Amino acid sequence: MSGFQEHHHPQHCFQYTALGDSIGFGVGATNNYGYVNYFRDFLDKLYHCVNLTNRANPGFTSSDLLNHLQHDINTRKAVKNADIITISIGGADLLNCLHTSNIPACLSNADSTFAQNWPQIMNEIRKSIRSHAEIYVMTVYNPFKGDDPNYTTIEFFIQKNNSVINKNRSIYHYKVVNVHKDFQGKFTNGQWRVCTWTHFCQSPPDPHPTDRGHLKIARLHELEFLKNHRYKLRHLDD
């Protein structure tokens, strides 16, 4: 199967459902107007009628999302009706460990849990709910600066989480938006990207994206979308 086809009717508003955690909800952005809203605005230029249902919840871990998909009627309906779905999940699984007494053990357990939950999440969407939507999943980014002593420790576990996301893409037919890669390193002026695109370099540190960070995540989704819908480029010039 090469991919999922658009299945909306000409008189039918394009249905966009967002799933996941606080990033999907818009935390960190002004008035919670986050990457999901920006991506919706982009889709609206292409389809002119887009109905967004945002079922993301602040603090959600992969276990929470799995439970939500299994038992929340409104979420299941939103997934079933969707033409396109975006998912942001996995960050809270790991970052919650920073507040524990044994961080390495917590991170290891969190990775194992995510590795078990992720295929079940996708199985719930594709096989239980029987969604044929086009799905875009963002990778987890590392909010620490590259020279922070904690960077390497958490990076190891973030890479493991992202590996689980990447290796299942062909099984469940979804696209991966590599946010992790773009948030790494410095700009040409020497500024760490995470200090511009997240609130983590502020006091107190907050790993959520800034307005500019949410916009960057949205742009990465747009680029991935256009790779698969090249014919839509002409609509952006209208």
Structure, explained:
The two termini are 32 Å apart. The relative contact order is 0.15. The longest helix is centred in the middle third of the chain and has 26 residues, at 103-128. The chain has a five-stranded parallel sheet, with helices on both faces. A two-stranded antiparallel sheet has the order 6-7. The chain has helices at residues 22-25, 35-47, 62-71, 73-81, 91-95, 103-128, 151-167, 169-172, 179-182, 193-197, 211-228, 233-236, and strands at residues 14-20, 50-54, 84-88, 134-138, 175-177, 198-199, 206-209. It is an alpha/beta fold and 238 residues long. It has one domain (14-230): Rossmann fold, CATH 3.40.50.
Strand content: 5-15%
Extract low-pLDDT stretches: 1-10
Largest sheet: 5 strands, parallel
Q: How would you classify the helix and strand content by structural class?
A: alpha/beta
* SSE order: EHHEHHEHHEHHEHHEEHH
Shape: globular
CATH class: Alpha Beta
How far apart are the termini?
32 Å
Radius of gyration from the alpha-carbon trace, in angstroms: 17 Å
CATH architecture verdict:
3-Layer(aba) Sandwich
Number of domains: 1
CATH topology: Rossmann fold
Mean pLDDT, nearest integer?
93
CATH superfamily: SGNH hydrolase
Numbering strands along the chain, what is their spatial order in the largest sheet? 2-1-3-4-5
The proportion of residues forming helix, as a percent range, comes to: 40-55%
Task: List the total number of helices.
Answer: 12
Number of β-strand runs: 7
